Amino acid sequence: MKGSLIIVSFFIIGTLCGVYHLIPYDFTDSKLSYYALCGLMFCVGISIGNDPNTLKSFRSLNPRLVFLPIMTIIGTLAGCAVAGAFMSQRGPLDCMAVGAGFGYYSLSSIFITEYKGPELGTIALLSNIMREIIALLCAPLLVKYFGKLAPISVGGATTMDTTLPIITRYSGKEFVIISIFHGFVVDFSVPFLVTFLCSISF
Q1: What whole-number distance in Å separates Cα of residue 92 and Cα of residue 201?
Q2: Taking the model in full, what pTM does it have?
């Protein structure tokens, strides 16, 4: 839990620095965050390579776990549809389109803004950022109360990059491969599901 709070604290500090221009360097067109992410992934790769038990656990991984991303997609869309049924201004399809971002806030918000307007696009941006933050902040609680696969499902499309280190820490290195696979599949589905749900009209 402490590690998650530290990560979120750095995010908040970075946001405040950007809002108040506390750092003179302009990160808008910089690829610094991309390089930092690459470095992070490199470190995760080293930790996997140094632990032969991780690769052994992948070979003995239950084949049914390949259905985890499918269950994540179905569960998210079903939950959003139910939530949308109780909203007066937004219908189930709008809520499902927002949920179909699966934490991939940059891409999904652009698509939704283009199809549905800036208001829903902003909602998509904030809700998907919150999904990622919840995965980072609540990973230890999710593991404790719902099992080691819970942070992976909650992380959505982010489980192969930004939330992977926290998942590795609390779920274990044996879940790294399934986490990356889960993130890849869910990430790949985002543009197709978002555009499909946005294009449906009654």
Answers
A1: 11
A2: 0.74
Tokens read off for 28? 């808008």
Contact 182, 61 (CB under 8 A): no
pLDDT single digits (tens) 99-139: 999 998 877 888 888 888 888 988 998 898 899 889 988 99
What is the three-state SS of 78-107? HHHHHHHHCCCCCCHHHHHHHHCCCCCHHH
In degrees and rounded to multiples of 5, residue 12 shows phi and psi of -65, -45
**Burial class of residue 46 (count of CB atoms within 10 Å of its CB; 0-12, 13-18, 19+):** exposed
Q: Alpha-carbon Rg of the chain, whole angstroms?
A: 18
174 DSSP assignment: G
What is the distance of C-alpha 26 from the center of its chain?
26
The first and second tokens of residue 42, run together, are 């490199």
Compute the CA torsion angle 57, 171, 70, 197 (nearest 10 deg): -150
Rounded Cα–Cα distance for residues 185 and 139 (Å):
21
Output the pLDDT for position 41: 64
- What is the spatial distance between Cα 144 and Cα 139, in angstroms, rounded to a whole number? 9
Instruction: Catalogue the E-assigned strands of 24-180.
Output: none
- The label of the residue with tokens 């890849």 reads 184
